[in-house]
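Field guide to reading this record: the first block holds the primary sequence, the second block holds the structure written as discrete tokens, and the final block holds curator observations. Each block starts with its own label. This record concerns Exocyst complex component 3, catalogued under organism Piprites chloris.

BLOCK 1 — SEQUENCE
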Amino acid sequence: STMEETDREAVATAVQRVAGMLQRPDQLDKVEQYRRREARKKASVEARLKVPRLINLSVCGSQVMSRTSNLIGNEELRKNCLHITFREVIFKIFAYCKIVSFKLFKNNSYSCSLGFFLVLLLSFPEIVRETHDLIERGELLQAHRKLMDLECSRDNLMYEQYRMDSKNTHDMNLIHTYFGDMQKLSEELAKQLWMVVQRSLVTVRRDPTLLVSVVRIIDREEKIDRRMLDRKKQTGFIPPGRPKKWKEKMFNILERTVSTRIEGTQADTRESDKMWLVRHLEIIRKYVLDDLLVAKTLLDQCFPPHYDIFNRLLNMYHQALATRMQELAAEDLEANEIVSLLTWVLNTYNSAEMMGNSELSPEVDVNSLDPLISQNVVDQLLSKYMSTLTSNIIGWLRKALETDKKDWIKETEPEADQDGYYQTTLPAIVFQMFEQNLQVAAQINEDLKTKVLLLCLQQMNSFLTRYKDEAQLYKEDHLKNRQYPQCYVQYMIAVINNCQTFKESIISLKRKYLKMQVEDTLSISHANMDATLDIIAKEGCSSLLDEVFMDLEPHLNELMTKKWLMGSNAVGTICVTVEDYFNDFAKIKKPYKKTMTLEAHRRVVVEYIRAIMLKRISFKNAEERKEGAERMIKEAEQFRFLFKKLAAGSGEDTEGLCDIIEAIAEVIKLTDPSLLYLEVSTLVSKYPDIRDDHIAALLTVRGDASRDMKQTIIETLDQGPSQPNPNYVPIFKEITVPTLTVPKLLK
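BLOCK 2 — STRUCTURE
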């Protein structure tokens, strides 16, 4: 409009006049004089003419003179200019202003009025102070507005100087020095911005407006950077300090903040807390999830969309976590710590408790996230875990067995399970340890779980061999002094029962943790363990029966003696002793108890027949033979009754063991010697493992067969057919006959 043109003309004229007054440095001394003269003229003009255009011109001129006067008295600025006089600076600036004013006026290219432009230059120290105060008060947008005005003034002056004489570094330095405090202001403002950026996740909740202001300032600076870079391409000129790259710095600061947040979550060390890593990882999980939720719901709204702030932050957290996890993986971790780390990295990170949280969807897609640690590092950790676990399991099993052995020598009986069977805590301890490690491995993946199960069963195999050896040593130590340990029988029963518990636990463990396709590789190992357990149980049962028969020995020695024939109660005592022992043996679990009862029955019969074959007695006549035979039949019946009772009706004498005693009694009882061959041949056909020396011994006990008769019977028997009981288990092969007989010695 006409009014605006008039204003511009007035300002241009005023600038021209002021520039004309200040052609030489020495004229600066007269600034105050010029100012007073202009003030008088202004008053005179105002009195005569009420024309706004002239008022503006006059005001502009007086303001310029006033500012110049103030600046000349600025001691602080003088001190900063060590190598140039202040008058020279002002003089140069006015010289540029003169050039700039005409260019701007001519081209109408600057939005601010020229008066404001000059005032801004002359008011520089005051504006710096004001801007500094605004920064301190936290009024960052206003502070930035003033800073931009100052930078704009400086940059335009420098640009004009560059265009006039690009090689004149002296004049360029003059301008740069004059605006020197501006750089400090910029740094001061930046410092405030970075403090807000560092705390952006807290600020966005408490004072989102502040964060929005900071982002606006950074965005403005980005635009100025782009403008300046474009101008540099066209003209080759770029102002000092450009490009500022505040957006890039902001992201760098956010990145450092994220890294520090992740690293700073480790509150404890292994020395202060065994669960340090679990706590560390849980704090990381919570912090990262909370931060990302805030970033998605609140922070995203404070930034321009093209900043893509959420995805940038997500990437920063992922990178910081990857770095932290790699650092942890490189530490000398214990087995449980390796599991904690791998569980977190492979499972927790992508789970609904963290990146898979529904509130982060769809922005976060767990399938597109890179692994936090490489497969190679995972494999190394798993290998180290398996190696550590192997040595741990060996150590735990050894310690468990040592602890169990200490119980074996206690003076109190072992505990019984709910069914009354003696047991020790060994199987429970071993399988609880296996279970814990399998549950831990299952947290990582199926493959590791299978490997750990195979490892447990493999170590179990070796352990059972040691268990067998220790049980054997226990027996041998007891035999050196049968009074010690006091509860030997009860603890040996517990060892036998443990074998059954181990068998059941192995089956249970495989069923729970093993996929069917791996079954084949384990069947051999399982068969080996079962065989070892059966040996331990069998040897345990055998050692317990040895106990019984050591106590029975004096009574067994009475059998087939004169004392026995005259009415000894040896068999009665034998039955009572066996029954007494079997009251304890009732605490043996069923499969082994049944075997034990059959074995005891068999051994009693074997010892009884052995007593016959020892030829401790030779009946003198038919009367003695009848009496002895009837006694044998009666005692066979006592044994039959005893073992039927011990087997609780379930273990009938299927092997017909007591029948053997009765069959031998029939041979001894026979009154007609001519039928002796027939009776003996019947016995041999039933029990084909009877040897010639057994028949000879039997005929010796009978007491009425001559040497020739014995010879004839033995030779004839060799051709006879055999008809053994299909359930018969050879018994005579266990019985040896003494070669030096009493009659031979007498001869």
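BLOCK 3 — OBSERVATIONS
Residues 519-556 form the longest helix (38 residues).
Residues 68 and 194 are 37 Å apart (CA to CA).
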